[in-house]
Design a protein that fits this description.
The structure holds 2 protein chains of 2 kinds. By secondary structure, chain A is an alpha+beta fold. Helices cover 33% and strands 29% of the residues of chain A. Chain A folds into 2 domains: 57-164 and 254-274, Rod shape-determining protein MreC, domain 1 (Thrombin, subunit H), CATH 2.40.10; 171-248, Thrombin, subunit H (Beta Barrel). Chain A is built from 6 helices and 12 strands. In chain A, the strands form 2 sheets. In chain A, strands 1-2-5-4-3-12 form a 6-stranded antiparallel barrel. Chain A is globular and about 95 Å long. By secondary structure, chain B is mostly helical. In chain B, 71% of the residues lie in helices and 0% in strands. Chain B contains 7 helices and no strands. Chain B has helices spanning 2-20, 37-41, 49-67, 72-91, 104-107, 109-132, 138-165. In chain B, helix 1 (2-20) runs parallel beside helix 3 (49-67), helix 3 (49-67) runs antiparallel to helix 4 and helix 4 runs antiparallel to helix 6. Chain B is globular and about 50 Å long. The two termini of chain B are 23 Å apart. Classes of the chains: A alpha+beta, B mainly alpha. The A-B interface holds A 12-13, 16-17, 20-21, 23-28, 31, 37, 40-42, 44, 47, 50-51, 54, 58, 115, 117-122, 124, 126, 160, 188-190 and B 19-20, 23, 26, 29-30, 32, 48-50, 53-54, 57, 60-61, 64-72, 74-75, 78-79, 82, 130-133, 137, 140.
Chain lengths: 279, 167
């Protein structure tokens, strides 16, 4: 017995080593299975607020370009409002149809990026809004320049996003003039390029076409800009085309994003919950 | 006690520098310096393995939490702390058996550089290996490991020289 204890003590570093490595690998491989593991990410309150302070400091760098971009965007929106107002006026006669076409079921929650990476095989983004602001997992997230990704894990004040630049991201898209569908994947590497897979070979697609969200999922409304077709090559199985998409969202300098809340999705959820509660 | 607090201070400063500055560096899209390993490399040579591994594990875990890597850095740092005593012995043997802090001044530039290089390379192999977790991008993986190792070594040697090089 004494010999055994002595042996264990002498080799305790092996035990500690395997224990700590076990914990690390368990954390790594179980992250996707537990909602609770959000506490071990940058979306927890302590690291989230620390990163937010850092973001506030570094946020001052490049303020000039940010301002110019916002001014440009403002002008564009102004232009759009003007155009829409004119359109509305011209449709005043059949107002009935525009009214019955109903409300836009989506509303938008603005948020700031707190932590972001673009160089890993699986990137995550942390934003400074959480469940207290009405965010839940599986909501679409966009920037002023294109689609960013989907909310993944939420804590009360912070949310972890699954951006396009993550191998788990999988967003249904279509290429505009021909309306051919595919899903967007990120092969890794360049943060400005993604691949639109499973586009049928007969689909007419040319370089420079716009890629937008398809509206097939409840995350995104139809027609949000994702990027622009930059190259077309046949996929390995020769049955479909894989299209290189130049992403609209500048992930490397992403600061402001908008989370899209789909009121329709909530309604659907409460409906199912009501139904299951009745049983 | 004094050494504990100065060690803790080093620990916090290195984590802050790593998380807020160095994590944002991606030289040529491949190389990210991970200066925080300097803390593990320069723990006193007499430190027990278990103690060193615990420090390294906690440090790695904090880095993980801030950079959304879920245990990758904790695993790599623990491994580095585990093999550290053997690595030191490989490059430097102190005849009088006195405990010392591994560094340029105690080991000499060449020996410390060799020790740091092997340690950093091992640590980075684990970090990038777990990050990619496939051999599909073998070239990318190799370049990332090599480039980051060199950059981290550069940072470690620079910081070592600035803080402890002269006496």
């Amino acid at each position: 017995m004494k010999g055994l204890l002595e042996f264990l003590y002498k080799h305790s570093h092996w035990l500690v080593f395997f224990l700590l490595e076990g914990i690390s690998l368990f954390l790594l491989f179980s992250f996707n299975d537990y909602q609770g593991s959000v506490w071990l990410s940058s979306a927890n309150t302590v690291s989230g607020s620390a990163l937010e302070v850092g973001q506030r400091v570094t946020g001052y760098f490049g303020l000039t370009t940010e301002n110019r971009r916002l001014a440009e965007q403002n002008a564009q929106l102004e232009e759009q409002v003007f155009g829409l107002r004119q359109m509305l006026d011209s449709m005043a006669l059949d107002r009935l149809t525009t009214l019955t076409e109903g409300q836009w079921p989506f509303d938008v929650i603005p948020a700031n990026v707190v932590e972001n990476s673009t160089n890993k095989p699986d990137n995550y983004i942390t934003i400074n809004k959480g469940t207290l602001d009405g965010i839940t997992p599986d909501m679409g997230v966009i920037s002023s320049e294109g689609v960013v990704g989907v909310t993944y894990r939420c804590s009360p004040h912070y949310t972890l996003l699954l951006p396009i630049l993550n191998s788990k991201s999988n967003i249904s898209c279509k290429v505009l003039p021909g309306e051919s569908f595919g899903y967007l994947e990120w092969p890794g590497g360049d943060a400005r390029l993604a691949k639109l897979c499973d586009v049928p070979r007969y689909a007419v697609v040319s370089v420079g076409d716009t890629v937008v969200t398809s509206g097939h999922s409840a995350f995104f409304p139809e027609g949000l800009i994702v990027g622009i077709v930059s190259a077309i090559d046949p996929s390995a199985d020769n049955l479909s085309n894989a299209i290189d998409v130049q992403l609209g969202t500048p992930f490397a300098r992403l600061k402001h994003v908008f989370v899209i809340r789909n009121a329709g999705a909530e309604e659907r959820e409460t409906l199912t919950r009501m139904l299951t509660e009745k049983d | 006690m004094h050494t504990f607090f100065s060690r803790l201070l080093n620990f916090v400063i290195l984590i802050l520098v790593q998380v807020f500055i160095l994590n944002k560096i991606h030289l040529f899209g491949y190389a990210t310096p991970m200066l925080y390993v300097w803390f593990i490399l320069t723990l006193e040579a007499g430190t027990g393995r278990n103690k060193a591994m615990l420090w390294a594990f906690v440090m790695g875990l904090v880095i993980d939490i801030f950079s959304n890597t879920f245990g990758i850095h904790a695993a790599a740092a623990t491994l580095l702390a585990f093999v550290r005593p053997s690595l030191i012995r490989l490059f430097f043997i102190r005849n009088d058996g006195e405990p010392f802090i591994p560094g340029i001044r105690t080991m000499g530039t060449g020996a410390f550089r060799g020790y740091a290089l092997i340690g950093i390379a091992l640590h980075h192999c684990v970090v990038f290996g777990l990050e990619y977790f496939s051999f599909a991008h073998l070239l990318q993986l190799g370049i990332s490991i090599a480039a980051s190792t060199l950059l981290t070594l550069l940072f470690v040697m620079a910081v070592e020289r600035i803080t402890r090089g002269r006496s």
